[in-house]
Design brief:
With about 130 residues, the protein is of the alpha+beta class. The chain is built from two helices and six strands. A six-stranded antiparallel β-sheet has the order 1-2-6-5-4-3, with helices on one face.
Length: about 130
Amino acid sequence: MELNKRMLLFFVFILLMVLSAALYKFVLEKDRYSSVSIVPEHRNDLPLYKGLEFQDHHYLIKGNHWYEIYTFYRDTLPHHGWKPVYKQASIEDWGGFMLRFQKGDKELHIDGGWNPNVNETETTFDLNPVQH
């Protein structure tokens, strides 16, 4: 009987450890995106450019990919119901872009640029109500 109690306590301990780890992961994931207004990974109408990874409040990819990211969103988002409102790309200095799209009463801003000092392309997404 003593062995059964020990086995039960061991099982309960392991179960508590697993549940604690799952809860901790859930809380971290929930707070991970608290600094941004839109998360592409959580939407069907905003695909994430392959290779972009979320870091703090923006998305990063190693290398100079700003123009590929610009053309990806410029050409892809209209197929997801987003209406282009503004686009600008500049190869001066380090290269970068600004895009704005509307869908319903929301406006999506996508900005990006390459930083040669760290050889990374940073992209930010921002979703706000349309300002009239």
